[in-house]
Amino acid sequence: MANRQAARQRLAELLAEAVAPPRPARRRTKPTRGSQQRRLASKKRRSAVKRQRRRGDPDDG
């Protein structure tokens, strides 16, 4: 009997969760100026590394 009661309780909770209205969507915000600058600085560093790799003595390869 306890198993059926527990199953009914779980079903009721599942149905209540399914019927509940969906949560509102996350409000988008602009990235902060600092985060934008950090991102661009990181990209510049990365491109500089790749640019340095491209240059070199053609006889090395």
From TrEMBL:
<protein>
    <submittedName>
        <fullName>Protein subunit release factor B</fullName>
    </submittedName>
</protein>
<dbReference type="GO" id="GO:0043022">
    <property type="term" value="F:ribosome binding"/>
</dbReference>
<dbReference type="GO" id="GO:0072344">
    <property type="term" value="P:rescue of stalled ribosome"/>
</dbReference>
<dbReference type="GO" id="GO:0004045">
    <property type="term" value="F:peptidyl-tRNA hydrolase activity"/>
</dbReference>
<feature type="compositionally biased region" description="Basic residues">
    <location>
        <begin position="40"/>
        <end position="54"/>
    </location>
</feature>
<feature type="region of interest" description="Disordered">
    <location>
        <begin position="14"/>
        <end position="61"/>
    </location>
</feature>
